[in-house]
């Protein structure tokens, strides 16, 4: 989820943003099954491999190269997101390039140790994130700042805003980003268990995002939640129990940076593996630090300021991420299925 937790996700649907996120989760789950279907057809090949297998080398190789660029771009956007979050919330005197460099180098170091190390590290931090989330929600309730009547009436403007928000925002972000896992799926030792965990992770992610939006609106009201750059930080800053338990926004920032770290790592790894596969580099770790420099450079040059970064991100969601995350995988599944039936009929 990463930075999806901290932004105003689905807020175009106003009070029904939480509902748009749940619908986005359902469509995201359907998209995950598209990736699974391709994985079942080519269990030993990553995305970059079966693109060439399905479309042929003249079309598949350049397209796979575009995917490598897409993954690097996604990693750079997430580095910039994390850097901006830290600058705005706690490190306002630190240059953005320094924060981005530290984040990129940290991810590169873990990836250089291997994808297994990344997975074990994620398991360790998952417990911390769960405890942090549960504690934060409980403290919000105890503080008495949550008013669920702010969510009423449900569907005040009908279904149209919810469905429109689902198709234009909550489906694309963050569920189109699951495309990164197509570079990891061939490494699974047990296909069925991996797919089952993927389904559970998708559903839980959608639930957590929807719950977070509910808490933001219930605590802040739709006006503030819709205008705030990072509504979750505003929400958690309201916690004040006996003038003793307060300023939990720093804990939330830490949790969000942890989530962003692993999101960066997935895009980063997918970009490196795709490039190594295309250029037939046996040890992909040789590309980790060179690609890291590219990610760092792009994260700085991607936008002149935060407003421009957000505007570009909104455009990328309905164009770049939609094409690479949904359009092309669905097209490849159709072509692969038709080719398979044609070969079966010919035989």
UniProtKB/TrEMBL annotation:
Keywords: Germination, Membrane, Transmembrane, Transmembrane helix, Transport. The chain crosses the membrane at residues 17-38, 59-76, 82-111, 123-146, 200-224, 244-266, 287-307, 313-335. It is a multi-pass membrane protein. It is found in: Membrane. Its main location: membrane. Coiled coil: none annotated. This is Spore germination protein KB. It comes from Halalkalibacterium halodurans.
